[in-house]
From TrEMBL:
Species whose genome carries this gene: Halarcobacter mediterraneus
Domain of life (superkingdom): Bacteria
Phylogenetic lineage: Bacteria, Pseudomonadati, Campylobacterota, Epsilonproteobacteria, Campylobacterales
Family matches, as Pfam families: NosD
Protein name: Nitrous oxidase accessory protein
All copies of domain Periplasmic copper-binding protein NosD beta helix, residue ranges: 132-337
Length: 403
């Protein structure tokens, strides 16, 4: 084993040496460790064998000079550590990236800075690998023109931990199962975390701020999201956590604060005879705490704190059947009942209605006036003397009176 692990020291000054890194990779036996000294190395490199490239010190830069992908990995058992990867191309159809990993397993990318790269780290058919403690940012482009900071495509059983994605587009987990996504941070992105056709993923203790969407789950099942903080997802489509056509989800112990929509539920649970559990979440100071769209029943919504929101429940389609969900034991700051026996459970149910004159439910332009005195007055008058029979949305039979 010791004979296979050959340590190559490349002593370079801070200047570009064309092809020297690729030559060292090509000449190194499988299992070698290339320890790079501080310097500027030409990118566009390809790794086709088990190999480690580690920066001995800070300031090891691999520069793609604006062309293609900077580092391409086509092998299992590859480690990239303590490197700065920069200067990919800008072609979306080629997925120009800082690091692209294909058909790999048990590889590691950690402690790297990836900047000025259209896509950050792109994993395709890569399993049982570790992506940790990387700082990733895209090119200085409009939000929709950036590439994804971190992309998992048909990649299973990976650990994605303590990465920072700043001013990229999305982090996507598509057709990928069994991944742990833990303690990551996302800021000023579009989708901080976007799932499609993914199952059995574990999403824990991530923090997402100032993004268009915090976490959005689509066409997925059997996933746990717990302990996440989603803050200030704003704009017309801003939401904290979105559930579309998902089944057997546990959304627990999350904090969703200052978002346009706290939790968005669309045709979920999707599969017959399944449930989703939304429990012990703090849904605080959002424009809408929970927004239901299309048929959404059999969600179990318990022990959540629903506080300081402009609207607690929004139903934008008459067929969503919000009253067919199990809603119990939540704290509602606008509950108006009493607790005569002092058991911290309201003596009467907390009921939520939708009034026909709540224009902001159906007219997005009116949402501009959320929180203004005129909207507050209209809301008060609608409840005091509604112009038509209100629509019953849901009830919590056992509302909590104290946090």
């Amino acid at each position: 084993m010791l004979q296979r692990i050959i340590t190559l020291y490349l002593i370079l000054t801070v200047m570009s040496f064309a092809n020297i890194l690729q030559e060292a990779i090509d000449k190194a036996p499988e299992g070698s460790i290339l320890r790079l000294s501080k310097g500027l190395y030409s990118g566009g490199i390809t790794i086709n064998k088990p190999l480690s490239i580690i920066g001995k010190e800070d300031g090891v830069i691999i520069d793609g000079e604006g062309k293609g992908t900077v580092v391409q990995v086509n092998s299992p058992y590859v480690t990239l550590k303590n490197l700065t990867i920069q200067g990919s191309g800008d072609r979306h159809e080629r997925l120009d990236a800082g690091i692209k990993v294909n058909n790999s397993k048990q590889s590691e990318i950690s402690d790297c800075i990836i900047k000025d790269s259209l896509f950050g780290i792109d994993l395709s058919m890569t399993n049982n690998s570790i992506i940790s403690n990387n700082y990733i940012t895209s090119k200085k482009l409009a939000l929709g023109l950036r590439g994804d900071g971190l992309r998992l495509w048909y990649s299973n059983d990976n650990i994605i931990k303590k990465n920072k994605l700043i001013k990229s587009r999305d982090m996507v987990v598509w057709y990928s199962h069994g991944n742990e996504i833990v303690e990551n941070y996302g800021e000023y992105n579009r989708y901080s975390l976007h799932f499609m056709y993914a199952g059995k993923n574990y999403v824990r203790n991530n923090t997402y701020k100032f993004n268009s969407v915090g976490i959005f789950f689509m066409y997925s099942k059997d996933t746990i999201a717990t302990g996440n903080i989603i803050q200030s997802s704003l704009g017309a489509t801003g939401m904290g956590i979105g559930l579309k056509d998902v089944s057997n989800f546990e959304i627990k112990d999350n904090t969703i604060i200052y978002c346009a929509q706290g939790i968005y539920i669309d045709r979920s649970p999707f599969e017959p005879d399944t449930n989703n559990w939304l429990e012990n979440n703090k849904i605080l100071y959002n424009s809408e705490a929970m927004h239901f769209h299309s048929l959404s029943e059999n969600n179990i919504i318990k022990n959540n704190t629903i506080l300081g929101n402009i609207e607690d429940i929004i139903n934008d389609s008459r067929g969503s059947k919000t009253d067919k969900n199990i809603i119990e034991g939540n704290y509602w700051d606008n509950y108006e009942g009493f607790d005569d026996n002092k058991d911290n459970i309201g003596d009467t149910a907390h009921k939520v209605y939708q009034y026909a004159d709540q224009l902001w439910v159906y007219n997005p332009d009116v949402k501009f006036f959320y929180g203004s005195p005129v909207i507050s007055l209209l809301n008060f008058l609608a409840k005091l003397a509604p112009f038509s029979e209100p629509i019953f949305l849901m009830q919590d039979k056992k509302p909590k009176l104290k946090l």
